[in-house]
Fold this protein.
Amino acid sequence: MRVQLLLLVLLVSSCSFQNNSKTGSSLLIDLSNPKENLPISSFIDDIETIKFEVPEPYFFGIITKVLFTDSTFFVVDKKQGYVYRFRQDGTFLNQVGSKGEAPGEYRALHRFFLGKQSVFISDIGMRKIHCYTHSGGYIQTISATHTSVYDDIIALPNGKFLCHDIQGRKGESKIWLMNEKGEEEKTLIYHDASYPYSSTNWSTIINTSSDDSFKVFDPITGVFYLYEVKKEDKLVEMQHLVSDRKALAAYKGMDNLMDIRDDSAYLSYIADANRYLYTMWYTSDSMALCSLYEKDTMESTVFYLPKIDFPGYPVCPIPIATNLPNVLVTVLTDEYPLEYFPKQYRDSISERVAIMYLMNFKK
């Protein structure tokens, strides 16, 4: 299936933008005739597995994010509201933060993200961001204003924070900067009305190969933006990713996805690898579709599910958020049926054990 690459700038009539530069191209994905499945070996080179386990009394609920450093990784269990740190061989090291009312404790884990020498847990209900050492030691708490709302957030190398408020309050869905004190410093882009969107746990702010630049994906308009720390007054439009169905931007003033009656689609997951753009779409007929765009050939394949065809791997779990480049990360916990696990792990599966797949994209 050929992808139409339109070298023009799309002006999205249903949205109003502030302080962004429009220099990108448009990529149209045709979702009309999907394949039943696509062998995962056609775009994945190999799969690494890591078994990791938490000590009693902890146990896993739903893991939504895994973030890596040079020698460790952090696991975010959104259902239980905890963050755990492991060595890269799966050895448990420590918990980060804890729930409660004392200094450095949080009521509810909203987002977990990495800084240069520290890690952060945001408690959006309390408008607080707690800062810890990698080993879990409490450093400080940043108190934000009551209007500071975001669905995704990252720490910038200059000490500030880049925030993405997708749903927001009416008329204030935006991408914005928070300073070191928790104050709203600058709005980079905003929508002039509310749009329907269902929040997910995937990251819309994406790391690049540079420590000073980040990609931000806006699921309302389907636009990729580039944010460079040195040019903090604006975002640069890189690419507009759309399908052959209506996007969320067509439903200005509508709050609920259930109210959409048209044939529509919006993105629910993106992995931007060097060679491929792997995306998952949610459609108005409650179908989940995947697309694989190969950047060199400018060709795309749309399919229902990837078919895992590596020996010893029964299924391909849904990928989760990560900061690893060129890798799809998936995690199996005991919430999955036992037959979904590779045979060599089945005897050891419990509520405290998880199996992680690192699926490396072909280069």
Notes: Confidence is low (pLDDT under 50) at residues 1-19. The chain has no helices and 27 strands. The radius of gyration is 20 Å. The longest strand covers residues 20-29.
